[in-house]
Design goal:
79% helix
Amino acid sequence: MKGEQDVNRVVEQYSDIIRRLCMIHLKNYADTEDIFQTVFLKYVLSSVSFENEEHEKAWKV
């Protein structure tokens, strides 16, 4: 599981792009919020170690 600081950093860094992509594809606010939460929940529970920032971004987006 990821630390609180790491999770906060990732949410701040990627929340806008994830929300935008979800809205483009889903065209529904409620579904967008569900997917948004799922993405970050999977990140928090993941034990994946990323090689660099681009690898981390590709995993989320």
